Amino acid sequence: MRVQSTLSLLFFCCVSSIGQVDNVRMKNQAEETAKALLNDDYETLIKFTYPKVIKLIGGKEKMISIIKKGKVEMNDQGISFEKVDIGEPGKAVKAGDEIHALIPQTVFMKVPNGRMKSETNLLAISTDNGNNWYFLDTVNLTMETIKGISKNPTKLSINFVS
Predict the structure, then answer these.
(1) Cα separations (Å) of 23 from 75, 94, 99?
(2) Which helix (H) or strand (E) holds 22?
(3) What would the DSSP string read from start to end of 25-45?
(4) Would strands 134-137 and 114-126 be described as parallel, antiparallel, or unpaired?
(5) Contacts from 14-18 at CB under 8 Å and sequence distance 24+?
(6) What is the 3-state secondary structure (H, E, C) of 46-58?
(7) Is this model's pTM higher than 0.85 or not?
(8) Which of 16, 68, 89, 90 is least enclosed, having the fewest CB within 10 Å?
(9) What is the tens place of the pLDDT at every residue in 113-131?
(10) Predicted confidence band at 137 (pLDDT cuts at 50, 70, 90)?
(11) Residue 88 CB-density burial (10 A; 0-12 exposed, 13-18 middle, 19+ buried)
């Protein structure tokens, strides 16, 4: 909840409303990303990952390596993704040269003693007026992380939690 409130505050302070954005396109691309996660389609996951994050991590190959390692660690613990439901995108807002929106997602996972459901948001980011979208899961985002990614991606470190 803290991240969602922080993101809302960020939007109100730093952005202005924009005209109509194609929410169907945004949602379809978010669903492609979810399908790629479930099917270990790393190329598609990278395609929809915010480029500044890829740069921050050390490039495409390093990012894929981290994702694969995380999946192996999850499997070793008896955890796996079962399903991801993408909700309806929220209102899109202009943030500098980008468009941002929040999209609710529900992730269903198999865990050693049953199943788990996690409800979070994706931060959808477009750098080309809504034609193509990148996605960040807000579950581990903080205001510091967001500011660091947007201002100077080479000087910020992100800890990945598997």
Answers:
(1) 34, 15, 12
(2) none
(3) HHHHHHHHHHHHHHTT-HHHH
(4) antiparallel
(5) 14/95, 15/93, 15/94, 15/95, 15/100, 16/93, 16/94, 17/91, 17/93, 17/94, 18/92, 18/93, 18/94, 18/99
(6) HHCECHHHHHHHC
(7) no
(8) 16
(9) 999 999 999 999 999 999 9
(10) confident
(11) exposed
pLDDT value of residue 20: 74
Q: Contact 148/155 with Cβ under 8 angstroms? A: yes
Residue 94 DSSP code: E
Tokens describing residue 114: 């049953």
Q: Phi/psi at 107 (nearest 5 deg)?
A: -110, 130
What DSSP character marks residue 80? E
Residue in 24, 25, 66 with CA at minimum distance from that of residue 45? 66
Backbone Cα Rg of the chain: 16
Question: Any residues with CB less than 8 A from the CB of 109 and at least 6 apart, and which?
Answer: 79, 80, 81, 82, 115, 116, 117, 118
A 10 A CB-CB count for 109 gives 16
